[in-house]
Amino acid sequence: MGTVIGFIVLAAMDWYLVRKTGLHIHQWISKKYEDHLASKENKK
Predict the structure, then answer these.
(1) CA-to-CA distance for 13 and 7, rounded, in angstroms?
(2) What does the pLDDT look like over 10-32, one tens digit per residue?
(3) Which of 5, 17, 37, 40 is at a distance of 20 to 30 A from 30, taking alpha carbons?
(4) Domain-wise residue ranges, the chain
């Protein structure tokens, strides 16, 4: 039962991100990680 609820929560998060940013969860995380690495390089 907990797995089903977890999938529903993830699907809701994905739907929300697609509506707001146009990106799916894995694309959004990848973009944030790239931004983090770029800002780290700029600080050096």
Answers:
(1) 10
(2) 999 989 988 988 888 888 889 99
(3) 5
(4) 2-43
